[in-house]
Amino acid sequence: MRQPIIAITGATGFVGTMVIQLLQDRGYSVRALTRKGRDLDKDKDPAHSIDWINGALDNQASLETLCQGADCVLHIAGVVNAPNKAGFEAGNVDGTAAVIKAAKAQGIRRFIHISSLSAREPQLSHYGASKAKAEKLVGASMLDWTIIRPPAIYGPGDMEMLDLFVMAQKGYVLMPPKGRASFIHVADLARLIIALIPVHEDATAQIFEADDGVEGGWSHASFGRAIGMAIDKPVTAINAPKIILKIGAIFDRLLRGKKAKLTLDRARYLSHPDWVIDRSYAPSPLLWKPEIEMRQGLKNTARWYRKNSLID
Q1: Radius of gyration (C-alpha) of the chain in whole angstroms
Q2: Is 295 in a helix, a strand, or coil?
Q3: What is the pTM of this model?
Q4: Cα 256 to chain center, whole Å?
């Protein structure tokens, strides 16, 4: 029997890397989009069933090649940091439209789209608005689609939360204003994505929100203290007022330019007090349930940072 071919965007990112690893472990054949100018002949590896396609979301020909003969598309790629609204629109809206077009042109039916919990509150940020628009495109595509809205994603390989671990080494963690949020380990999210590849009656045309299983999520302060526990150091979690986040975003842009982690757009998003998933949108436990408890997951993340000399 032929191995199912899975076409993936965002394959070289934090989530995509984990998804590819688990797909290979399960015997899937993987075709993955990359911007990195790989040597295609060199990187074709039958033993690992992966075929890299040089291209990008704004290169329709490469998306057609990615989708040709595939059984399912995993659209993981997205822009999480952009200097303006147009940057988010180009990456998340236009990019999603292009992948849908390629999937339909190549006769693919199954389409799994990784969105964000931010799409639930599109008025708060350009990022959330662009993810909400992308969801509408997927919903109107006439494909056999499923959308996943992850909350904050963490785990080994994550560079978005590194600054929090660096701060924790100094005895404090600067957190958003008082509020609560859900979290999910990257490996748990990857397992959910893969669990949705086969057609399920209870997954078709559904939006799922999934987390670590903690009812009511985590307060910002308790998450900050959990990071301290992960590095075996007591920390003080400080809830920063909105204005401090805004000022911090301005200074981060001045210091790190395009590499800034805290942008004004993200500051507006982080200031919202409720980023807890809606349990009515959670996947059935018969389909998937989380396996990695937060405190253990944060310890694993800290070990990866130390191994890569990112923290002491």
Answers
A1: 19
A2: helix
A3: 0.93
A4: 22
